[in-house]
Write a structure and sequence with these properties.
3 helices; two-stranded antiparallel sheet; 8 strands; alpha+beta; 4-stranded antiparallel sheet
Length: about 130
């Protein structure tokens, strides 16, 4: 018979297995923090409107307007299967990070945070740098 006594888990009367509950709780909380998507990458706020995964490009345009940068291509995943991918970049102001919205087949699947250029020339997606 298992019972909880003074923060430990004991099993049976002869063979006691003591596991501190605090360590288990901390391990669960740590795991949830690392596996859960951050709130910043799950949604985008444009003025008073909220953009979330699953929206169509039309819905995003209604809420945020025209993006600063757009890129589209067809991604061939395996023979006979391809996906249209669209990337839209929004610069939401001086004191906010840029946001990259990634659509696949007309649905928003991911919102990524991009750094601001630290001066000079930078690619629109914030991935590469170069000279002006």
């Amino acid at each position: 018979m298992a019972r909880l006594m003074h923060g430990t888990f004991t099993h049976g009367s002869d063979h006691s297995l003591t596991i501190p509950l605090m360590r288990i709780a901390l391990l669960v909380i740590w795991t949830l923090c690392w596996t859960a998507p951050s709130a910043a990458d799950a949604a985008l706020r444009c003025d008073t409107e909220l953009v979330v995964r699953g929206m169509t490009p039309y819905e995003v345009l209604e809420r945020c307007g025209v993006p600063e940068y757009e890129l589209a291509w067809t991604d061939y995943r395996y023979p006979g299967y391809f996906v249209r991918v669209d990337e839209w970049l929004y610069d939401l102001g001086d004191n906010r990070f840029r946001r990259l919205l990634i659509f696949e087949d007309g649905r928003l699947i991911r919102i990524e945070t991009r750094r601001k250029p630290a001066g000079g020339f930078d690619s629109p997606t914030g991935l590469g740098t170069g000279t002006p």
